[in-house]
Amino acid sequence: GAVVSQHPSWVICKSGTSVKIECRSLDFQATTMFWYRQFPKQSLMLMATSNEGSKATYEQGVEKDKFLINHASLTLSTLTVTSAHPEDSSFYICSARSGAGGHEQYFGPGTRLTVT
Amino acid sequence: GEDVEQSLFLSVREGDSSVINCTYTDSSSTYLYWYKQEPGAGLQLLTYIFSNMDMKQDQRLTVLLNKKDKHLSLRIADTQTGDSAIYFCAEKDQAGTALIFGKGTTLSVSS
User: Fold this and answer.
1) How far is CA A14 from CA A17, A27, A45, A114, B66, in A?
2) Which residue among A32, A43, A103 places its CB closest to the CB of B88?
3) Which of A43, A65, B38, B64 could join B103 via S-S bond, C-beta 3.0 to 4.6 A?
4) Closest approach of chain A CAs to the CA of B13, in angstroms?
5) Is A99 left (phi over 0), alpha (psi -120 to 50) or beta?
6) Would strands B9-13 and B18-24 be described as parallel, antiparallel, or unpaired?
7) What is the pLDDT averaged over residues A59-64?
8) Nearest 10 degrees: CA dihedral of A100, A24, B96, B23?
9) Mean pLDDT value across residues B82-92
């Protein structure tokens, strides 16, 4: 089946620093990748939709200058949390959709970010 | 706007059937999905149903769709302790790209 990986699986960083999270589709090409954020015991909130080779589309209320998304290839999208603050601590999950007309989204295992 | 609602908790005994219910608002949804999330992990696609179907069965999983009432359910037969997890119902957004998730139903299976 389709596999999506994320790296790192967890990260602790100091307030004010930047953190990059990678999302890779391992066995398929993903023209579209999605970034979600999940708070404890909450649902997933879509942050942005990323299409390969073009700018990401951010959901209302998500600061694009704070959450930088790059989708430079058909198998890799990155999310950079810039100048992280403790309120950015969360579980970040990416998903990928095949470019071959598939409708299913396959999710990565998530990245736990803790900002101290 | 688009919204997906689920009950938050379900507790069953091992071997019983579990039924997780979901309601959605966007009648134009083409696909509806069920995902499973185990503690500290990402989401696993369990199954999905196309909007022109009433029922889909896949081994122990049965999905029922009532388009008129915008109601979706997931039945897990012979529930096992390994089925304990959070189950999310999701529909496609109006643009047909991203997914709108419910808050998730925590299924607890006791032996």
Assistant:
1) 6, 34, 24, 9, 49
2) A43
3) A43
4) 23
5) alpha
6) unpaired
7) 93
8) 120
9) 94
